[in-house]
Amino acid sequence: MAGCTVSVGGRVGAPAEIAPDVPHVPRAGLEKSIKEDLSAKAGVELKSVTCDGLLKGTVGATQRCVATGADGVSYGITVRTKSVTGTHVKFDITVDDEPIK
After folding, report:
1. Where would a tag sit more exposed on the chain, N or C end, judged by fewer CB atoms within 10 A?
2. What is the H or E stretch that residue 99 is in?
3. Residue 78 covered by a domain
4. 18-31 burial code (b ≥16 CB/10 A, e <16)
């Protein structure tokens, strides 16, 4: 999983912490997308993914997450908004080179 980068898309929701007309990916949706996409595209089985919050639909916006593999090893992840089309937010997932100690 180390050093892996994956591009994915996410759907928009409307949590209380952001205006409903501002594109974004809610925290739960972001965590689910990361888990599913890293498993499918990078062949990594993840036990859990936890993010600090939502991902804003502004190109270049970032969010930090932690992914824990089936082996119990955790890696930091940076998610960065790549593009926004209407309410669809595309983002890149970059896994840190070293596990969290």
Report:
1. C
2. strand 88-99
3. yes
4. beeeebbbbbebbb
